Structures are given as C-alpha cells and as structure tokens.
Amino acid sequence: MSDLTRMSAADQAAALAAGEVSSVELTEAHLARTSAVDADVHAYLDVSADAALGTARDVDARRAAGEELSPLAGVPIAVKDNIVTRGQATTAGSRILQGWLPPYDATVVTRLRAAGMPILGKTNLDEFAMGSSTEHSAFGPTRNPWDLTRIPGGSGGGSAAAVSSFQAPLALGSDTGGSIRQPAAVTGSVGVKPTYGGVSRYGAIALASSLDQIGPVSRTVVDAALLHEVVGGHDPLDATSLTDPATGLVEAARTGTLQGLRVGVVAELGGDGYQAGVRASFDGALDVLRAGGAEIVEVSAPSFEQALAAYYLILPAEASSNLARYDGMRFGLRVEPSEGPATAERVMAATRGAGFGDEVKRRIILGTHALSAGFHDAYYRAAQQVRTVVQRDFAAAFAQADVLVSPTAPTTAFPIGEKIDDPLAMYLNDIATIPANLAGVPAMSLPSGLSDDGLPVGLQIIAPARQDALLYRVGGALERALDETWGGPLLDRAPELTEAQR
Ligand code: GLN
Atom of ligand 1 at shortest distance to CA of 175? Predict the structure, then answer.
C-alpha cells in the first residue's frame, strides 16, 4: 500500500478490517512521519511510540483471533495535552504541570483504549487552552503545515497540525471558545464541538467548566463522526453528561443531503473585519449549498456582537476558580520562595509566579476582579445576562433555519509573532466560534476552500442542541459537493513539508 498516512481514518479502518494492513504498520507509518516532520511542525509535546505499538500489536492479535472490534480499532490517534492519560505526562502546555503523571485516564481516553486505538502522543496547546495560536504554550509554538512561519490556530494547534501534516488521521481537542474549530479552519481540517454534555469532560483539565467540550479533529467529516461515536455518550463521572447519546452521526455524514434544508446566514458573523478572501470562500460555499438544494436565508442574532465581551468575562471568572488548585502542593511544580519562611502562602505565590505564563496570569487577574464583591454585578452578572440573550437569539434563529453558517474565523492563519503582544487582537479570532459555546449548541468547522493568499478557510455550521447528527448531515453533504468542485480533498493541495520551507 502506498502512503498509509494519507488515507482517511475510515479508509484505514476498512483496510484493517479487510486484512490489507495491520495496526502495527499503520502506527509505524505515522510514527515515521512524525520523525520526519515534527521537528519543524512541533505538533507533539510527547510521542508515546512504545505504548502505541503495544496497543497496535494487541489489537492486531485480537483481530487475528476473530474478536469483534470497534469500528476504529487499530486506527491511531493523537490526544491534546489537556486530556489526562494515566502514567503519561500531561502538561496542559504549562510549566506548572511539568513532571506530573496523571493517576487516571480521562473517560474519552478510556474509550479510545477500549476501542483499541493506539495513542501516538500528546499534542501542543496554548497554556491551559488559553489562546488562539498555540504561541502561549510554555513549550514553544506549533507551526502551520501550510506555511511554517504561520500559526496553526489555538488553543488546539497541536492536534490540528498533527492531523493536517499527516502525522495522525485523527485527534482529540477541547473547545471552550473555538479551540477545536478555529485550528481546524486555519489548517484545512475538520473540527467538531459537540453539544455541551455530549462528550464526557471527566479528565479534561478544566478551563471554564460551563463552556468546555471535548471533540474530534480529522481530515473528513465521516472521520469526525466515527471518532465522535467512539468517545461520546453518557458518563456517570461527569455531572453535566447528557443521558441520551448522539447517534446516527456516521450514517448522517455518509448519506446526508442538502435537499430542503434551510440554512441561516448569520448577519452578525462575517461582515466587516473578515478578510476578503475568507468572505469570498464563504460565499462560494453558499453557492454550493444552494446548488445542492438548500435554501439560504438571512438571520440576525444581535447579541452575538456582545458575545465576545461576555465570554472574556465568564471564561476568566471560571478559569480563575479552576486554576486555584495549582498551589504547589498537589500537582507538578513546587517552588520555594527565594528568601524568608516557606509558608504555604509564600510557596503558593512562588510556584504560581514561576509556573504560570503571562496569558494565564492575565486571565486569573481579570477573573478574580470580575468576581470580586464590588464588581460582580457590573461584570460577571452582566456577562451572564448576555449569555441568556445569546441563547434566546439562537432559539429565534433556529425558528427560521435548520442550521446556521458563518466563516469559522475572521482571517486565515496569521504570522507567528503578529498578535502575541496584543491580547485583544488575539481574542478577536474567536468572534464567530464563541456564541456556540455560550449556548452549548454543537458546531463544526470544515474547509470551504482557499483564500486568495493560498491558505485554507473554514466554514462553520451550527445546529440546535442535541442535533449533532444534523451537523454531520450538512457537513458530509457539503464536503462531498466541495471536493467535487476542487477535484479532491483540500489537504491534498497543502505544500509538502520540504527543505524549501524550513
Ligand atoms: N481562543 C479562545 C480562548 O483563548 C478559545 C479557548 C478554547 O476554546 N480553549 O479562550
């Protein structure tokens, strides 16, 4: 078989089932690709070759013994490093967790292991998933495989870069304000934020608990659906877990049509401030939706203009509380004060001072301020009120349309270093992705084409809560139609990672 790493996860699974390839061969091919390109891309913080090959050998033996296996058994995967893996370093991109070995697996990891999926390694991210470029990782940035001088999005730039540079067919990400979808958009990949509660958060290192969701990163919509079905479903260990699992996702992705679908274009997402090449690609995709039989309607969600501001109060408020546990006593780093007595408070201050990066400190300060007695009503409470109005605007929009669409991000991948010193410019990347998190509704980003700068553009589809299958129906149909107009997957057009780029 030619290049195994270029195959979709679905094709890899089919080849495994047909006995044309072994999981060991697949796993070795991806590890070899990582050896060849990851010094440049830096998608991984930790590669677990031995463990991955152990899983691969085991699943090959089980298949040989005629055991009935999960649909993705033997297909390797990468996992974002804010999802805990038992006995394997999990840093969340932070110095404060360096050296910590989790004593347990996240539920999604337990499910990957039960499905027989070799875990290739842990992927890079902005520290504690705070950021839109992966430049806030304490361990150095990840680079965009389309252009190594540009960002791969964030916070899950590592997962998106691993998938788009063919180091892994699949990855898990986490999405609190867009960290699965925006990296997918700027790397030409597919990313899905499931309905809040649809995938267990047990073992996901908490950023903002009311917004966080784990979800799939992949190169095709069907592949995302396959992974979503493996990791999704009720988990008694997560108090916010939905009891009814999202089902029929793969079926919807494979067979969905656009006929009779009402697609709402959100007036507030996609106008001024969006790069011309992004808008052109988005408009092109609308034509393809129309040609496929969908009706395009314009909908308005005025509160989306305030969503970003509300998010950047709610997120820091929750994060400041979640991050209080990193006290120098329980996890990872512990720093003694340079002088004076090592009281608990002083050890805590020294550890947090040394262990957290600037963006994390900025958000802790912002969050504790927004929650403080004198300011709580003016900031946190006001933000929660906006959140309620965002949810109402979604309800009104979904009365007029089955799904909503927008560009996923306002620009294509920007140069590394361009926004790192300008937090507000960095936050603006999330303008289109944040409303779905505030409302808990599912959303997907898939490639809509290339901008005039030659870089990939993402289109976002948003569905009502618990209608994840509808996302896959629309995404699958749109992807098939777009691939036809381009003559193949967009990622086939990514430049090879050659000497010339280094
Ligand atoms: N870019 C957003 C932020 O910095 C998204 C974070 C996320 O989804 N984890 O908060």
Answer: 8
